[in-house]
Design brief:
8 strands, Rossmann fold, homodimer, alpha/beta, binds calcium ion, 13 helices
Amino acid sequence: GSALAQSATPMDPLPSWNEGKSKAAIVEFVERVTDQSSPDFVPVAERIATFDNDGTLWSEQPLYFQGLYALDRVRKLAPDQPEWSNTEPFQSVLKGDLKGVMATGMPAIEKLIFATHADISGEEFQTSVRDWLATAKHPQTGLPFTKMIFQPMLELMAYLRANDFKVYIVTGGGIDFVRVFSEGTYEVPPEQVVGSSLDAKFEMTNGIPTILKTGKLDFIDDKAGKPVGIYRHIGRRPIFAAGNSDGDLQMLQYTTIPSDAKDNKPGFGLLVHHTDARREWAYDRDSHIGKLEKALDDAPQQGWLIVDMKDDWSKIYP
Amino acid sequence: GSALAQSATPMDPLPSWNEGKSKAAIVEFVERVTDQSSPDFVPVAERIATFDNDGTLWSEQPLYFQGLYALDRVRKLAPDQPEWSNTEPFQSVLKGDLKGVMATGMPAIEKLIFATHADISGEEFQTSVRDWLATAKHPQTGLPFTKMIFQPMLELMAYLRANDFKVYIVTGGGIDFVRVFSEGTYEVPPEQVVGSSLDAKFEMTNGIPTILKTGKLDFIDDKAGKPVGIYRHIGRRPIFAAGNSDGDLQMLQYTTIPSDAKDNKPGFGLLVHHTDARREWAYDRDSHIGKLEKALDDAPQQGWLIVDMKDDWSKIYP
Ligand SMILES: [Ca+2]
Ligand SMILES: [Ca+2]
């Protein structure tokens, strides 16, 4: 009929995904949950999708980019902190000795986080991150960090949104850090970012309403913390979750494993597997960043899609 | 012209608001921030509105309705807790001695909260609240609690949504409690509810992903906690905030007072003043529930609208 004659081939919503079983599995799921005649149809209000950030939406080597921000911030603040020149971990940072920093362990890392993320107002922190993102370059690629995002994942988020999903970022990184660029870079508004946080308090400072980030850890949105962060912020279980490491294991369990015998809500789990040493990095079980082991082992049994960056993606960065 | 001739009088978006300065102030603000040619135009993404719940969207006398839920829950659980018959505050609850409960003070109230809200999975808690709301009646009006909501405020939220505001509830009450009915009662989805919370943890229990509410207080979303809750959940300052008590003072400050000399974002603060002893309740400075004193005193100077329930509303409940 004329209606059919008029309908052109629809535009490919995932042009940077090579044809194959990964792309087919994603499209099949989205069509199934949005087809009113399907037994797996999911109402719009419940189409929640959650994406990890580091290693899932952008690169994370040789160090989480927020870690690189912290190191640059130490260098920037150092002139006002003379005692740092002989105090660890600052001393090692200032000498450019990253291994020395790492060797000082978790308490040192926490000191770095507090020195660079706390005792500052929310607005000042935002400005600092925004300024850094505008000028900082990745030590190996020379690219601005917001250009080291994964084009296929941008397309996937846009495809889900076009199908009335509400797309969230659920990151082990700092919620305040990611919110600075989430809207401009990923089209994810700040209120759809869940992440780790320091405590904050509200004060009227000289008559000005101020949110002050304090030096106390509030919440770590990683591993078993991810479902808790989702529960707190969203209050519904996602039906689609994407990650790249064992930090996402529990989020994928929460998304895809039925909560009781009557629960027949469909759920899709996706793992980005870093397999492309030429165009990006290749790592999994032995990496100190983005270690992927347990989730990789569980994926076949749980039916989680393992995306092979090398084979499945025709393009990495935009 | 014919275009003008065709344009009928637009439907009144606030039919339960009497004509007068309150209604006019609301309409004037909404028209101003949504008019592209106005210097106060606010882009859609930044049109965040936050509403307190108890006393702002529904009644709160003689006790917060969540408190009445807790008392009913104690009665329901009592057969399995024989020691409650001679332990305060449970003993007083079971005797129906509300004054006795109150007299035992905050530690007793906390005991009640933990006994009725903790050591339970998120899903079990939801079911319990849903069942209670379906059958419980208010001790004085005999109405189901979800019928004791304010029709004018429903219209106000719908009016804001029609003007592309994202409407949130920011409640001192429990986030998990309010989320059970927010979508059905107020058209506010669970992800747009901010509230007080207990800690939660995620576990795989016999292979089932489970969120367990624990007996540790996580966050009190009241007074200076409200701007912090907004900062955490939304990550932007609202441009419209409505409350009814001193618990909302800081939220109104955060919404309406410029954050620096360059900040010219418009902000609207609204206080529901309970002045109608005949149709609802009349109380403010001396009330043990919903005490309104400092915010009432500050309102004229800050330009906050004080809504007089008796004079401004032609209808209270739907
Ligand atoms: Ca990751
Ligand atoms: Ca209130």
